[in-house]
């Protein structure tokens, strides 16, 4: 019987680590395919992505969508891939007190706030909302 083609079979643990790394990277903000691939290669070395890295990245993003309901889109205006929803990978289960604190920060630093720290607070709020989708209304 002739050997099957298709490249090196990667371990499921390595694949899972790579996909979680992609989620972590996208939680930080938009990223190009090249930046995502480079970050995975830095973190996982030669075990990161095969030679056809762009195709493998797209496969990983599609798998995250299919397996966990994540919503990642490529937006040119944002400069690359954007994580819009973690789906079933929600990472935080916030207490009522923590949700109240988030509402306070949201009211204190609205999107149009001009205080110097407002932009940083908005970035934090956006990241926390991605990780705790129960907060979305």
How would you sum up this structure, described in words?
Strands 1-2 form a two-stranded antiparallel ribbon. It contains five helices and two strands. The chain has 137 residues and is mainly alpha-helical. Helix 1 packs across helix 2. The model is unreliable at 1-5 (pLDDT under 50). The longest helix is centred in the N-terminal third of the chain and has 17 residues, at 12-28. The protein folds into two domains: 12-87, Arc Repressor Mutant, subunit A, CATH 1.10.10; 96-135, no CATH class. It has helices at residues 12-28, 33-44, 53-68, 96-108, 118-131, and strands spanning 71-75, 80-85.
Task: For the structure shown, list the relevant keywords.
elongated, two-stranded antiparallel ribbon, Arc Repressor Mutant, subunit A, 137 residues, 5 helices, single chain, mainly alpha
List the helices and strands and how they pair.
Elements: H1 12-28, H2 33-44, H3 53-68, E1 71-75, E2 80-85, H4 96-108, H5 118-131
Antiparallel strand pairs: 1-2
